[in-house]
Design goal:
Elements lengths: L1 E7 L2 E7 L11 E6 L2 E6 L8 E4 H12 L2
Antiparallel strand pairs: 1-2, 2-3, 3-4, 4-5
């Protein structure tokens, strides 16, 4: 897992990239927990746009994609 720190909406955010991502290529997304939402961004464009998802929706998404 890779951690990066940045700011968004005035608050420091810690960005996490999956340990399944290789260091050979930056094709991945990063996520950060922000007040009231989980933010998602393209790891290749760290200062680009971010998608804000309500925490409950993110939890539902993770549960569904990790089910066998």
């Amino acid at each position: 897992m890779t951690l990066r720190t940045s700011t968004g909406n005035g608050a420091a955010l810690v960005w996490v990239k999956s340990s399944y991502s290789s260091n050979d290529g930056p094709e991945c997304v990063e996520v950060a927990v922000a007040p009231g939402a989980v933010r998602v961004r393209d790891s290749k464009v760290a200062d680009g746009p971010q998608l804000a998802v309500p925490a409950s929706a993110w939890t539902d998404f993770v549960v569904r994609v990790t089910r066998p």
